[in-house]
Amino acid sequence: MKEFIKIMLRFVPPYKKNLVWSIVFNILSAMLNIFSFAALIPILQILFKTNDSVAATSLMEWGGGDMKEVLSNNMNYYVNMLIGEMGEATTLLVIGLFLVFTTFIKTGCYFLSSASIIPIRTGIVRDMRNQLYRKITSLPLGFFSEERKGDIIARMSGDVGEVENSIMSSLDMLFKNPILIIAYFGTMLFISWKLTLFTLAIVPLMGWLMGGVGRKLKQQSIKAQTLWSDTMSQVEETLGGLRIIKAFCAEDKMNMRFDKVNSEYRANLMKVNTRQQLAHPMSEFLGTLMIVIVLWFGGWLVLNNMTLSGPTFIYYMVILYSIINPLKEFSKAGYNIPKGLASMERIDKILKAEMTIREKDVPEHIDGFNHQIEFRNVSFKYDKEWVLRDINLTIRKGKTVALVGQSGGGKSTLVDLIPRYYDVQEGEVLIDGINVKDLGIHDLRQLIGNVNQEAILFNDTFFNNISFGVDNATRKQVEDAARIANAYDFIMATEHKFDTFVGDRGGRLSGGQRQRVSIARAILKNPPILILDEATSALDTESERLVQDALQHLMKTRTTVAIAHRLSTIKSADEICVIHDGKIVERGTHDELIAMDGYYKKLNDMQNTASK
Q: What is the largest CA-CA distance in the chain?
């Protein structure tokens, strides 16, 4: 329950007005319920012609005796008066109509209390998804290198859905039932404290038996949700690798893998649901058992004339039966909520994930790039192994610096340090003499444009993809950027031109077309610093020529850091740095490096041999 209260304290405050209204209507509903059922006493007295009301010949003053005695006497006095004026049958009808009216008001309050909970329930789920999405977009890239996409998707969908179906669906009963239980319990004490104390003696035993079934539910729910994540991860991997699966005729192999994890998820889900379904029949049986025990003891009190009349005892049993339903709902919540708490634990692994890339409380602001980028004694590691060691590099404004070397040597990691996708463990990365850790992250990344090996496009129109990083871009600005990127002609050849959708991740376009749209996006952003991460390595010769031409337009007047495998694309760079095992082992222009007869010349000779 502590975990549930913590969740409520986190998410309910924006909806406290709805919560207050729900509590008010629940209190009214409980009071009206007790008041309406009190009409059963005079009805039973009339029907069975008891002698309970004979002595009520005059009104007793409030405070003039025992509250229960005064209330019983005055009610009997008014019933006798009605019988004397209208007769027994008409009085019975009047009391019945009174019961109908109070029940109508009671059910109206019941509806309003439930309706007040709906904005809380739906709002919390919406806020939870928004918080998850915002957290995902704000977390550093390093977090996602350790997490599976399918697992994150499962938490956004399955886990949030489980919280909605278990915790949020229990909100109404959790806010309503305590009020009903307190009101009914107070009424039972008022009617007969002896019978109520006897009832209380057996309730804890019933509660312990009902709680025993749900003790392992949370643990099983965590395992089930983990297996659901495995299922979603496999679906995500399958969608991403469908071409390879078909190429290697591995459909049956993947089907068997999926069936294995899916069947395991089903087996655990069956255990969870079976245990959950046990809640209602067990609570029904134990509730009936409790009613029978109380009926025996209460009947003994009535038969021995021990301060409890027959009609009052029946009213007591009606109230007792009324309190059983809220207790059963509590037991149901006791089964539902652990499932939601298990999912909430998995959601919190994202919501409470550490933000390793933090901005200073008062960051320095920069609105332009004027001098140079400097790597000063930079060393970096992802885990235990050093990826970069003692990097010293200065990139002056307007210059193009190329990074070449073996795969896994640290080239991409080096450029990722400039926009602070990762933070260095040793040394400094400086922009115009200011440590990037001291700059506002938004200001820093506004200075930088990226064109990557894999052009990342969204399932949106050409216009929206190109204008993605620029607010309020005009149609002319987008078209001009597309022309410079050699993308205008093929865009205009599509059915809806710039309003044509590019498909999921640009799937309707060729590799060269996707890359030129990506370049157009960078051109429109117009950043002073440009990072090219093997922007042409995956393209055919014709596409490479068009993309390289677009890149030349993009690189004009900009400071460029280019990672390249094809050395032919960076021969004109102002400086080429050869990175080997995390260190800069050679640097200079193309001709200077060839003359050194070292790593660079070996790479150049291998590529020349391979191209022949």
A: 124
Three-state secondary structure string covering 221-249 = HHHHHHHHHHHHHHHHHHHHCHHHHHHCC
Instruction: Give the C-alpha separation, 531 to 538, whole Å.
Output: 17
**Four-CA torsion 228, 229, 235, 239, nearest 10 degrees:** 160
- Look up the CATH number of domain 372-446+573-612: 3.40.50.300
What single DSSP character describes residue 366? -
Domain boundaries along the sequence of the chain: 2-351, 372-446+573-612
Cα dist. 307→66, 301, 373 in Å?
13, 8, 92
> Helices 310-351 and 251-277: crossing angle, nearest 10°?
150
* Candidate from 29-38, 62-71, 104-113, 489-498 with smallest mean pLDDT: 62-71
Fold (CATH) for 2-351: ABC transporter transmembrane region fold (1.20.1560)
How long, in residues, is the chain?
612
Check: pTM over 0.85? Answer yes or no: no
Q: Kindly give, in sequence order, each residue whose CB lies less than 8 Å from that of residue 550, ignoring residues fewer than 6 positions away.
A: 484, 485, 486, 487, 516, 519, 520
Q: Which amino acid is present at 197?
A: L
The pLDDT tens digits for 286-309 are 777 777 888 788 777 777 766 677
The confidence band for 537, taking pLDDT boundaries of 50, 70 and 90, is low
In the block, tokens 């679906």 appear at 235
- Return the structure tokens found at 206: 């019933």
Burial classification of residue 235, based on how many CB atoms lie within 10 Å of its CB (0-12 exposed, 13-18 middle, 19 or more buried): middle
**463 CB neighbour count, 10 Å cutoff:** 19
Residue 283 has pLDDT above 80, yes or no: no
> Given this model, what pLDDT does residue 225 score?
65
Strands 448-452 and 372-381 come out as unpaired
